[in-house]
Amino acid sequence: MPEGHRAGAVPSETRQTEEVLRLRLEGRVELLESALRRYRLLSEALSARGWRRRLRDDPALLREVLELEPALPEALERTERRGAQEGWPEGSSIPRTARRVRELREELSARARKRLATLLFPSEGLSLEGCLRRLEALQGESLDLERTAGEPFALHLGSVSGKRKYVVSVLYVLGSLGLWGLMWLLLGSGNWGLALGVGLPAMALWLAGAVALLRRWVPGAVWLTPERLLWMAPGDEPPVSVRWDALSADAIQQDGREGLIVRGGQVLQVSGLGRQESARLRTLLEVFRDERVRAQAKQVDRPVELLRYPALLRRGAAWTEGQAVMTGRGVYFLPDPTSGVALLRAATGRSLDSQVELDWVLEGLRWQPASELDTYLVRAVAEVGGAAWSSSDARVAWDIPLEQEVHLSRGPEVLVGKVGFDERDLAHKLLSSWGGTVQAFARKPYS
After folding, report:
1. Strands (E), 54-134
2. In terms of domains, do 136 and 40 share one?
3. Which helix (H) or strand (E) holds 167?
4. pLDDT tens, position by position, 172-217
5. C-alpha closest to that of 241 among 251, 255, 227, 259
6. Which of 138, 99, 133, 135 is nearest to 114 (CA)?
């Protein structure tokens, strides 16, 4: 059967010219053609690694698509239906345009939802326009990096590890020496053109490569205050902030071995800190998630002076290894290896399945009133069977130099430990503040 007589086919003589079809579609084809470029540019921007920077630098990418999107679905549907009913003019570009616009809308929708999921909790049922308007609103939000009255301090995490700095430095020095040696050989043999034409560009490329490698290894930076968590990703991506009161019970999740995901008003994907820094951040997040800890932290203007050092506690004839925490109010001994876990649980009532160091917990709890920190330490000591001696009860053996050891006692119990060179001045300051304990006393030999 001839093509023109098939069921549903439109005889060629009845097919409209493209100009007539454009007129009958009342500007819808022109709308599709206008959308083609704008949707493609926005889709490419959202697929880029620095997508947030691109949207921030060129807000028209989102704005122009949002101007077209409300009318585009209807224009696309009417155009496709008219072509299916009446046939396309021979050689017309309209069906290709409509097909490409539909593909771009689907592609853009998928990329917008993916990017939105990195900033917010995924939201089902959002249209493409809804997703884009939410992205536009987030891009338009200004983030104040200055601390407010409720943020007396900001704890910072994130730096290039010494090992990585060493590797980059060694590679740079060795490469530079090799290139300089090559240039001297070329110059010595009279190959000036080769030396200048190859050697200098090679050195420039080597320097650029070393800088790029170090930049790639530089992690982002995290700041914690009593009100919010601020994440600045590597490069020039805009900072992201999450308020503590926006976090749910399961808002903090491990992301691989060296990353964290924090879900609040936005989603922070913290990465590149390294395993130790990631575990430290996880601990501090758990400390400041506690509403009481945050409320108390807003009341202080300086951290509690304290000193943590490894120590041995003698009770009877038994010696126990652990960690001593010295403050102006006394000394607290927590047996190893659960000292950090015990103090975290004493302050927040929660535990973590990741590494928890005592220093990390103390880093956050130092920003509490001294009496509150004392309460947390006493509670932790009671849980693990340690020792808590007030400054009025503990006796200091001043006849033993601090360079040798810190020697404390209370009744028959003895606590000894060694502080580092840089910590001796602080140890002396804290011990001297203990009223009534500055006199040396005669020590009985250990049995």
Report:
1. none
2. yes
3. helix 162-188
4. 666 666 666 666 666 666 666 665 666 667 666 766 666 555 555 5
5. 227
6. 135
First vs last C-alpha separation in the chain: 114
pLDDT tens digits, residue range 323-346?
999 999 999 999 999 999 999 999
Tell me the residue range of the domain where 173 lies. 162-217
Least trusted range by pLDDT, from 3-17, 157-171, 222-236, 312-326: 3-17
Rounded Cα distance, 218 and 220, in Å: 7
Q: Do both 268 and 212 map to the same domain?
A: no
pLDDT in tens, 131-161: 999 888 877 666 777 888 889 999 998 754 4
Could you read off the pLDDT of 211-249 as tens digits, one per residue? 555 555 556 789 999 999 998 877 667 788 889 998 888
- Report the distance separating Cα 109 and Cα 315, nearest Å: 68
pTM of the shown model: 0.73
The closest alpha carbon to 326, from 366, 269, 276, belongs to 366
Query: Nearest 5°: phi and psi at 174?
Result: -65, -45
Same domain, yes or no: 226 and 189:
no
Tokens 């430095």 identify what position?
169
- 3 by Cβ neighbours in 10 Å (0-12 / 13-18 / 19+) ranks as exposed
> What is the domain-level CATH number for residue 283?
2.30.29.30
Distance CA 108, CA 102 (A): 10
Domain annotation covers residue 126: yes
Tally the domains of the chain: 4
DSSP 204-270: HHHHHHHHHHHHHH---EEEE-SSEEEEE-STTPPPEEEEGGG--TT-EEEETTTEEEEESSSEEEE
Q: How far is CA 307 from CA 73, 256, 283, 291, 363, in A?
A: 66, 33, 19, 26, 11
Q: What six digits make up the tokens of 297?
A: 């932290």
Local confidence band at 37 (pLDDT 50, 70, 90 cut-offs): very high
Whole-angstrom distance, CA of residue 240 vs CA of residue 231: 5
Quick one: 317 and 289 in the same domain? no
Q: Which residues have a Cβ under 8 Å from the Cβ of 66 and sit 6 or more positions away?
A: 129, 132, 133, 136
Evaluate if residue 8 carries a pLDDT over 50. Answer: no
